[in-house]
Structures
1.
Amino acid sequence: MRLVKISDYNHHNMQLAKPVYDRKGRILLGAGNTIHPKYLEKLKEMGISHFLVEDAESNGITLEEMLDMPTWMDAILGLQNVYNQVAAKKPLPLVAVQKTIGQLISEVKRRKTVLLVPSTSIASELRPYAHAVNVALLSLQVGKAMNYNDLQLRDLALGAYLHDIGKAITPEKTKHPEAGFNILRNIHDLSLRSAHVSFQHHETLDGQGYPRGLKGTAIHEYAQICGAANMYENLISLRETPPHEALEALMALSGTKYLESVVKAFVDRIPSYPPGTMVQLNNGEPGIVIRIDTHMQRPVVRILASGQEISLTDNPSIMITELARDSLRL
Ligand SMILES: [Fe+2]
């Protein structure tokens, strides 16, 4: 299985590996189907730009670290419902949210990494919610790497999942953090720490963030984690930056915008080259990343010509020099 851009999809040799969903989160095309070229146009109009496919090159890549699509879709539709309720000035459905958070935590806990389903594989109406679910998943992985306990993971994930909830009631970019804080701080069973994630997720260590220009330790660690996850997710989804470049961009801000400890936890947990990435090695061979073993930045690569599998962790002299031509930009 691997992710391909809609423009690289070839219906002669690629089958869908995961379903494609419509704007309402219903299955439009099931796994195993091929997509007729006529249909591709329709999907493009919906804002879908990537699919997960099976083809000869990606044979044997299972992406078991990827969240199950139904779990992901439930979390997305659940969040859409939260936004609708809040926009209608109705109570936020906290019990349902807590259930979703419990699921996300158990998904992250039982895997060494969680590969994101890119929000570009979903209709544009649902993308803001998919983004927030991905930010919650990334934040949880960082929290796990920082040895957070269950209570800390829950408060962090709730804050990350709801970090942009202020957008349900205000279209103004600079006002949504405080609007979100005001919604969340009035909910009894929600920790004030989660509410502060919404308030502070656009603040940065150097005081250049918004809305208050908080500096250094005035910013809660959870908000730093959510802020870094937010930046990374926007890079890979909105701007289609390849994951290794998005990590580089985050590393470049270590100590100035984001805590070094947070950036380090990110690099320890998030792979630079997810399985399915087509790469060029420094020995001249093109290959495909087939799995992550121990080291997030040193995956196992299958040489396309020979089928030989090389662990880059065990072979430190072999390096990925660039992404191969049709490689996906997540
Ligand atoms: Fe935001």
2.
Amino acid sequence: MDSETEVILQAINDTAEDIWKEFDADESGFLEREEFKNFCLKMSDALNLKKITEEVIDEMIIKFEGESGDKKISKDEMKRYLKDLYGIKDETE
Ligand SMILES: [Ca+2]
């Protein structure tokens, strides 16, 4: 792993921690649907994306954890998604 990748991985870990601090309101360790929705709404505001609908939330959840998921987002699922965004291969899988 090169040092640039390490820096990005560190940033991803920090980002996930920050997201959890802000959005895991019941401190369950997961973003349940309502918490995940709040996260998506904030992101869409920040990024000026199209309006987030209930359907978009469902699509996002499937994007994060696949069809057979438990409908709540774990920190690992968030990190995997962020790694995907940055084009980093997950070497632990
Ligand atoms: Ca939670």
